[in-house]
Amino acid sequence: MTLGNARKTTLEDLARLAGVSVSTVSRALNDQPLISSRTKQRIWALAHEHDYPFRMSMPAAPIGSEGSIVVVTPHAHGRPLPLSHPFFLELLASIGEAARARGCDFTVSHVSPGSYEDLVIASTTSRATGAIFLGQGELHEAFNRLADSNHPFVVWGAELPGQRYRSIGSDNLFGGRRATSHLLRLGRQRIAFVGGTDPEAEQRRRGYVQALEEAGVDVDPRLMVTVEFELDHADAAVSHMIEDGIVFDGIVASSDLLALGAIQALKRAGLETPRDVAVVGYDDMLLSRLSTPKLTTIRQDTQLAGRRLVSSVFDSRPRMAVDRLPTELVIRESCGG
Questions:
Q1: pTM
Q2: What Cα–Cα distance (Å) separates residue 9 from each residue in 15, 26, 52, 60, 162?
Q3: Chain-centroid distance, C-alpha 301
């Protein structure tokens, strides 16, 4: 059943479409706890689909604000991206600062999408003006489908082939190449890569491989270690490399947190950073400036990222536009030069 364009959608229309009472629709739209989450999601999706005029009956955000934004963390490898990750916390803070400067509100959704249907729910079942997704996970094609809808959204993530949605992120390929080239210039020849399988980490891994190939250094698969997100996982992976007798004198990590985990493993094994093994991270989060030794890293400008993500929600430019933020090599103590 569809509604014509001659008149505005009413509560009664939504009640007929959903097969519920008008009072149930009203309570669902006002997010009252008496209505189940499933019913709320179905009614909000119908309301968006049929252009129900939300602002005629309720505010979409605090009175006087430009709008509101919902921040969503998709699934990666079967689980939500950890909001406790220091980089995501810093990025979330930057989004909040940018939203406040813009005069709009923001919330963090409890929904963690793992499918296209989940993305639709995350985009339509709130009163937000638009959505910011932190990471792509394995949902690249699902985001492409969502781009065909009229729901404003932007993704913090990598630029991928065939992309039709708007994303903002750093130049991961260049960042990975730059980190590796720096260690090569310092004379390191056995450089390991420690990183995940998410799109951004994979591009940083490709940059690492490119730098080695350009320098004429053999790419040793034993030096490429796959770990996801957690400091302890990096610690364990590097410990296993040491126990297996794999020789290396440098590490490029796909995040600062993984770099700090690697340094932790080196210390426990009696190896000194940077004398024995030089380490470069990626992100330039606060912890990298406070660690011992202070961490050399590829800086991502989270303040700029927050401003770009927030403005993108309200931007009339095509949503498939890709915005690559510049990266900067920040040299500190962990690489020795």
A1: 0.78
A2: 11, 13, 5, 17, 36
A3: 14
